[in-house]
Amino acid sequence: MRPRTAYTMELIYWWARLASHAPWLLNIPAQTPLLSTITKAAGGISQKRRVPKFAPETFRSWSGKRPPVHTGRKQVMLFPDTFNNHFFPETAQAATEVLEAAGFRVDIPLRVLCCARPMYDWGMLSGATKVLRQMLDTLHRWIAEGVPMVVLEPSCLATFRDELPNLFPGDHDATRLSSQTFLLSEFLQKEAKDFDIPKLHGSALVHGHCHHKSLIGMADEEAVLKRLGLDYEMPDTGCCGMAGAFGFESQHYDVSTAAGERVLLPAVRNTAHDAFVIADGFSCREQIAQTTDRRALHLADVLRMAIDRRAPIVHTDGRTPEQAIHEASLPSRGRANVLAGVATTVALAGAGAIVWAQRRRITRATRAS
């Protein structure tokens, strides 16, 4: 029998797919006071943590509404991982626009896929193998044609580069996909060196995800930051402490925060208000958001800011770069958020009415007897 978090955090692929049909509904037990306390206790999640909120619209939904761009250009596959599809779709949108600005036609898989990393981490090898087999079958044509694939989550890269060939030894598709998969910065350095990235004249604190640093290093990330013109610092922060689901678990909360407080979190708090905080990993971004007053941006978010100038580079009005990006995206998200709020209110009111009616029925039956 596995711990409770194995069935909450580690099966996030399935929970997220369910949530995509009605994200507001699954957000209710995790985001509503008292209900969230019960939900976290049932799932083995620390009461000191916030459960990440499902976005009102997935990246895949957004992508499906857009006409193709650069139809005749070189093709690239963007992998919508579970986290950037369901929680941070703006990051995947940003990556799409960056790759298109670099002259590529961006495709996404025909069906929802997952790298199976969470299942693999908990030893659910049978389930992980099935999910990965489905992925290889779905991507077979693109793999055979040598189409490169860009991933945004470093943990996904670790699966494709390392675990995938080991789980499928001798499988040509697994071997080829392993060599055709890149992080965004790595891809831009290898395939888009001539792309003239507009300059951002500012400063940044950069934190590298553990899988990013251990697998390919940060050289390409730094090269892209230099092309951006950012004055950045990249201290030896080690692990952020969240480490996937580890930092969400009740018994690991203290260790998780202690790891972050060693270097990373103090560095974030000491970073200038108008400076960027950049971290590509979902868990790293969550650790920063839940323990400081800053929200880290993915490199894709920063690149899009440079390309379309969606927010001022230097903020004299007290806003942080991430606040400026969030406000710039409000017009496109406003309707979805309003509808989600209305739906949540209706659902809670309906649930309350049902409970009240049931209790009244029981009271009448008791009196009658």
Features:
369 residues; three-stranded parallel beta sheet; Rossmann fold
Please describe the topology of this protein.
Elements: H1 5-8, H2 12-19, H3 23-31, H4 35-43, H5 59-64, E1 75-79, H6 82-86, H7 89-101, E2 105-107, H8 117-121, H9 125-138, H10 140-144, E3 149-151, H11 154-167, H12 172-180, E4 181-183, H13 184-191, E5 203-207, H14 210-215, H15 219-228, E6 231-233, H16 253-262, H17 264-269, E7 276-279, H18 282-291, H19 299-308, H20 321-368
Parallel strand pairs: 1-2, 1-3, 3-4, 5-6, 5-7
Helix pairs in contact: 3-4, 3-20, 7-19, 11-12, 13-15
How would you describe this protein?
This protein has helices spanning 5-8, 12-19, 23-31, 35-43, 59-64, 82-86, 89-101, 117-121, 125-138, 140-144, 154-167, 172-180, 184-191, 210-215, 219-228, 253-262, 264-269, 282-291, 299-308, 321-368; strands at residues 75-79, 105-107, 149-151, 181-183, 203-207, 231-233, 276-279. The N and C termini lie far apart (46 Å). The radius of gyration is 22 Å and the shape is globular. With 369 residues, the chain is α/β, with parallel strands linked by helices. The model is unreliable at 331-356 (pLDDT under 50). Helix 7 packs across helix 19 and helix 11 runs antiparallel to helix 12 (172-180). The strands form two sheets. The chain has a four-stranded parallel β-sheet. Strands 6-5-7 form a three-stranded parallel β-sheet. It is built from 20 helices and seven strands. Helices cover 57% and strands 7% of the residues. Among the domains are: 71-190, 3-Layer(aba) Sandwich (Rossmann fold), CATH 3.40.50; 198-324, Rossmann fold (3-Layer(aba) Sandwich), CATH 3.40.50.
